[in-house]
Task: structure prediction
Amino acid sequence: MVPALIITIGSVVLPDTPNSLIERGRNDEAKAKLRRIRGIDNVEEEFSDLVYASEMSKKVEHPWTNLLRRKYRPHLTMAILIPFFQQLTGINVIMFYAPVLFKTLGFGDDASLMSAVITGIVNVGATVVSIYGVDKWGRRFLFLEGGTQMFICQIIITIFIAIKFGVNGQPGELPKWYAVVVVLFICIYVAGFAWSWGPLGWLVPSEIFPLEIRSAAQSINVSVNMIFTFIIAQVFLTMLCHLKFGLFLFFAFFVLVMSFFIYFFLPETKGVPIEEMSIVWKNHWFWGKYIPDDAVAGIEMGKDAGAVKTV
Result:
């Protein structure tokens, strides 16, 4: 009940974005909102880009068909792989089954529940760090730092569990310091997720989808996320019984893969308006070949014209 109440209250006070205001014809309010967000009075160039993009999006009749076009190949890839990788960090194993997992590790009933509460608090606190740092340090930095942190923690947890539990799953008497160390590294792992793949798995897709495909791309993004949340939740206990400490190695492998994916294939989106993301994709070493020249020509001409006008 409490989470539902918080979400309801939050939805009431949630402010409109300039894009949503323009979509509803409230251009003056949109311009005022944009000035407030940017902290400057001269937002005419960006505002014109938003209005133009909104007008173009209204002419789009088949967003699903458009999403399959070659120039949207980077967007489709991100819409599928970012939520896919987000679930294969293993975070849902910790958050959904924390009491079961900690009890399996040898904690008592009360201790396992308390450990779950602790990881939940860490999750919330680390998310605040992401809110503070995402526009200061950039998306790629948080993705890569969080991935490195999760990978190291999963390897360490694997070693600790393997030494104590072996393959028979019988730890015997679990020393208090041993349990504290395991919980500590699980909390560090949760923190790494909560300021990287947790919030950024939702933020980055919302920043890279242009208006003409946003509805279709976001639908795919959410669907992939929910599908793999369900799959991981269903197979976790079976995987835990068969893989034992190897379960953490399984997720560590995917954390390594997704970190390389971010390093090589995701450009930085900090401070880049949605309307100018085509330029970012065009300048990327891999995705540039999918973006036609005419997709960025109009944007660059508009920026040049705005620069001349400002002078």
Observations:
- Residues 305-311 have pLDDT under 50 and may be disordered.
- The radius of gyration is 23 Å.
